[in-house]
Write a structure and sequence with these properties.
alpha/beta; two-stranded antiparallel ribbon; 13 strands; AS_sf
Length: 538
C-alpha cells in the first residue's frame, strides 16, 4: 500500500491510503466547502435527506448536460443512446465519474477510483464505435463494482463486455456485517437519511446507485449483501443462483477452500430492466469459458402466467418485523390479490426460518479466517461487527434447533450441518410442489435502514443463501405516517434492530421475491410483473 511497507502500523497505512484516494478526485470536482457546511456536521449524527435536498444537483459540479445524462436515462436508455450516437461513452463516463466523486464527498461510498483510466477506456470505445465495431452488449456503459472485485492496477481486471469500470465501492470490515464501515475507508452514509446505514456488505453500491452515481452496480451476496443495501437504499437488487455470474478470483478474507455457502455476484440498479440487461449480457457471453467457477448456462427467454400462485413467508416470532415492514408486505399481498393473483399463506413449520439461519450461522463460524486476518494486523473490530457478535451470542442462549455439536470436530460439524441443509432443501422442494407455487413473497429484512451499527442479523435473506434460491428486492413504499402510532417491543427470545419512528421516517421500504434454484430468468420476469402491479402500471 503506497510507500509504507506491510509491516507499518495499520493506522499509518490507513492514513496514507485515505490521502491517496482523496487526491485522486480532481480539484475541479471537489464540492465547495461552503456548500458542505450548509449541512449540519457530522452528517452521520444529523438526519439529512441528500436525495430530496438534491445535494448532487446543488453542488454545482455537474453541468446541465451531465445532470440530464445521470438523471433522465435508465440503463436501457443509455445503451440505446450510446448505440445510436446520441451520447458518446466519453461524455457518459465523465458525467458518472463526476457524480460518483460528488457522492463520495457526501456519503463516503467509494474505495478506489479509476477516473483517468475510465475516460481513456471510454474514448477507445468511442473510436471503436466510429469504426462500426462494438466491444460487447454493455459497450460504453459505466459500471461500478464492489471493492472485493479485482481490478488491474488497483488494490483489492475485469473487462466487462464493453463496460467502463470507473469506481469501486465501500464494504464493511470482513464483509460479514450488514453495514459499510471499516477502518480503512470509514463509514458510508445512507443518502436518504445520513443517520442510517446503507446496508451491507455491498453498502457502497447501494448508496452510490441511490444518488444516481452509477447506472448499474455489481455486488456480492452470501447472506443478503446485495439485497440488504437494495432495501436500505431503495434500489432493486438481485441475488442469483450460485455460479451464474462470474466472481472467480474475487478478493476474500476467508480461508481458501472454505466455501460451504457460496457467495454470488449480483446487480443493483434503479430499474429491473437494468438487471435484465446485465444478466443477458453476462450469461450470453458464456463466462464459463473464462471462469471455471461459473455454470455454462446461457440466458433463457421465459414468459409468465397472467396470474401467479404466490406463497407468502410469515413473520417469524424470533425475528419480528418493524411496523412499516409488516405493513408494506401486507399491502403488496393485497394489491397482488386484487389483480387476480393467488396468495397462499405459508406456515412457520413449512418455512423453518430459524432452523435455516442456525445452519447458516454455524456453517459460517467454521471458518475463522477473517477474524484471524484482522487480529494478525492488530486492527480493532468496527462497532457493527461487535454488535453482530452480541446478537448472535444472545440467540445462542435460546433453545437451539440443531443437535449438540460440542463433541464433534470440524468435519463432524460440517457433516451434520450439510445433512440438515439437505433436509431443509428437500422440505422446500416438497412445499413448492404441494402448493404449486410460482414465486414467494417475503420481507427482505426485519426493518428498513436503521441507525448505524444496529442492523444485526439478516434472517430473511440468509435462509435463501442456504437454499441457493434466486431472489430480488423490489422497492415499495417508505416509513410514513401510518407507522407513527405503532409500537414495537421485543419479547423474550426475540431479536431486532431498535424501532424509532422519528429517526426512520422517510426511509425506503421493500419486499423480496424468490423462486427455486436456477430459475433466475423466471424470478426476474415475475419480479417485473409484480413490480408493475405494485406500481400501478398494469
Amino acid at each position: 500500500m503506497g510507500s509504507l511497507g506491510q509491516g507499518a502500523p495499520w493506522q499509518e497505512r490507513v492514513a496514507e491510503k485515505r490521502e491517496a484516494c482523496a487526491n485522486r478526485i480532481p480539484k475541479a470536482w471537489r464540492v465547495p466547502q461552503n456548500f458542505l457546511s450548509s449541512f449540519q456536521a457530522p452528517l452521520s449524527d444529523h438526519k439529512t435527506d441528500l436525495i430530496q435536498e438534491q445535494a448532487v444537483r446543488k453542488s454545482g459540479i455537474l453541468t446541465d448536460r451531465e445532470l440530464e445524462i445521470t438523471e433522465q436515462y435508465d440503463v436501457a436508455g443509455l445503451l440505446s443512446a450510446l448505440a445510436s450516437g446520441k451520447l458518446t461513452s466519453a461524455e457518459v463516463t465523465l458525467a458518472y465519474c463526476k457524480r460518483a466523486a460528488v457522492a463520495q464527498q457526501l456519503v463516503s461510498c467509494l474505495t478506489e477510483t479509476m477516473f483517468e483510466e475510465a475516460q481513456a477506456r471510454a474514448e477507445y470505445l468511442d473510436n471503436l464505435r466510429a469504426q462500426g465495431k462494438s466491444a460487447g452488449p454493455l459497450h460504453g456503459l459505466p459500471v461500478s463494482i464492489k471493492d472485493n472485485f479485482q481490478y488491474k492496477g488497483r488494490e483489492a481486471t475485469i473487462g466487462m463486455l464493453g463496460a467502463v469500470i470507473y469506481v469501486k465501492t465501500n464494504v464493511p470490515q470482513t464483509m460479514m456485517t450488514a453495514e459499510a464501515d471499516n477502518n480503512v475507508f470509514g463509514r458510508t452514509l445512507n443518502p436518504w437519511n445520513t443517520t442510517l446505514g446503507p446496508g451491507g456488505s455491498s453498502g457502497g453500491e447501494g448508496a452510490l446507485i441511490a444518488l444516481r452515481g452509477s447506472p448499474l452496480g455489481v455486488g456480492t451476496d452470501i447472506g443478503g449483501s446485495v439485497r440488504i443495501p437494495a432495501t436500505c437504499c431503495g434500489t432493486y437488487g438481485f441475488r442469483t443462483s450460485a455460479a451464474r455470474v462470474p466472481n472467480g478470483g474475487m478478493r476474500v478474507c476467508t480461508t481458501s477452500g472454505m466455501k460451504f455457502i457460496l457467495s454470488c455476484a449480483g446487480p443493483l440498479s434503479l430499474d429491473p430492466n437494468g438487471i435484465e440487461t446485465f444478466f443477458k449480457a453476462i450469461f450470453n457471453a458464456r463466462p464459463a469459458l473464462y471462469d471455471s467457477t461459473v455454470l455454462d448456462i446461457p440466458w433463457r427467454q421465459v414468459s409468465t402466467k397472467p396470474t401467479l400462485r404466490i406463497g407468502v413467508v410469515p413473520e417469524n416470532p424470533n425475528f419480528p418485523l418493524h411496523p412499516p415492514v409488516r405493513r408494506v408486505l401486507a399491502e403488496a399481498a393485497r394489491l397482488l390479490k386484487a389483480q387476480g393473483h393467488e396468495i397462499i399463506p405459508l406456515s412457520q413449520k413449512e418455512c423453518q426460518l430459524l432452523e435455516a439461519n442456525e445452519i447458516a450461522w454455524n456453517t459460517f463460524s467454521l471458518d475463522q479466517g477473517a477474524i484471524r486476518h484482522m487480529q494478525a494486523a492488530g486492527e480493532p473490530p468496527v462497532p457493527s461487527l461487535v454488535h453482530l457478535g452480541k446478537v448472535i451470542e444472545g440467540l445462542k442462549l435460546q433453545k437451539p434447533t440443531l443437535p449438540d455439536m460440542s463433541g464433534l470436530d470440524s468435519m463432524g460439524k460440517l457433516a451434520l450441518l450439510n445433512t440438515r441443509k439437505a433436509e431443509i432443501r428437500e422440505s422446500y422442494r416438497k412445499m413448492w410442489l404441494h402448493h404449486d407455487l410460482d414465486i414467494c413473497l417475503a420481507p427482505p429484512a426485519q426493518s428498513s435502514a436503521v441507525a448505524h451499527d444496529n442492523f444485526g442479523v439478516a434472517p430473511y435473506t440468509t435462509f435463501l443463501n442456504l437454499l441457493d434460491y434466486p431472489a430480488c428486492v423490489i422497492p415499495f413504499g417508505k416509513v410514513g405516517e401510518l407507522d407513527a402510532k405503532e409500537t414495537f417491543e421485543l419479547k423474550e427470545g426475540q431479536v431486532a434492530p431498535p424501532w424509532n419512528y422519528e429517526q426512520l421516517k422517510g426511509a425506503p421500504c421493500s419486499i423480496q421475491v424468490f423462486t427455486t434454484t436456477l430459475r433466475d430468468e423466471e424470478c426476474l420476469e415475475m419480479t417485473k410483473q409484480i413490480d408493475r402491479c405494485l406500481k400501478g402500471k398494469i
